[in-house]
């Protein structure tokens, strides 16, 4: 048992030493990178500052131009507002009132539903009559053909009766 306890103690001690050593190694890497960054020369920002001045000058020029148009637009709006004259709409409103009164006096709409129902019934009856007429036309055509056949048979019988040789 004592051996196991000692082994676990040594293992824990080695783990702690390894963790501390790893921390020092990482700290050293960090410091070496920081030294490398500090040793590089600084970036020259003077061209960007000159571009910034140029852009600011262009923006100022554009704002001045926009302000001139703003003043021009304000003057134009003022001229248009001077030309606008108020209009008296009381006569228009009176006419609207008269039309509303006339609309109110119109009679109510008639109930056309019963008429529509009757028309629909008549239409259905018309379709039924048309079907009946078609059937009767077919029946009449059949009867005509039967009459023609019977007439032909009668003619044959008459011919046979006149023929002395016929049976």
How does this model look, in words?
The protein has 167 residues and is mostly helical. It is built from four helices and no strands. Helix content is 85%, strand content 0%.
Give, in order, the helices and strands: HHHH
> What is the number of helices?
4
Q: What does the overall shape look like?
A: flat
> How much is the radius of gyration in Å?
58 Å
Number of strand segments: 0
Mean pLDDT: 84
The description of the largest β-sheet is:
none
Secondary structure: helix percent: over 70%
What is the terminal-to-terminal distance?
143 Å
Question: Which class do the helix and strand fractions yield?
Answer: mainly alpha
Helix and strand layout, with pairings?
Blueprint: H1 2-39, H2 46-83, H3 90-105, H4 113-162
Short structural description:
It contains 4 helices and no strands. The longest helix is centred in the C-terminal third of the chain and has 50 residues, at 113-162.
Keywords for this entry:
mainly alpha, 85% helix
């Amino acid at each position: 048992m004592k051996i196991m306890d000692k082994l676990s103690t040594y293992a824990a001690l080695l783990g702690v030493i390894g963790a501390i050593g790893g921390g020092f190694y990482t700290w050293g890497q960090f410091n070496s990178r920081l030294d490398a960054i500090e040793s590089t020369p600084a970036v020259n920002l003077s061209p960007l500052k000159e571009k910034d001045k140029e852009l600011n000058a262009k923006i100022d020029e554009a704002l001045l131009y926009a302000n001139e148009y703003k003043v021009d637009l304000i003057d134009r709006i003022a001229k248009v507002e001077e030309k606008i004259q108020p209009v008296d709409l009381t006569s228009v409103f009176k006419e609207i009132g008269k039309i509303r009164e006339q609309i109110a006096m119109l009679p109510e709409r008639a109930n056309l539903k019963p008429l529509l129902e009757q028309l629909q019934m008549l239409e259905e009856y018309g379709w039924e009559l048309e079907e009946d007429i078609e059937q009767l036309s077919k029946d009449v055509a059949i009867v005509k053909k039967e009459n023609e056949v019977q007439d032909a048979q009668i003619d044959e019988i008459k011919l046979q009766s006149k023929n002395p040789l016929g049976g």
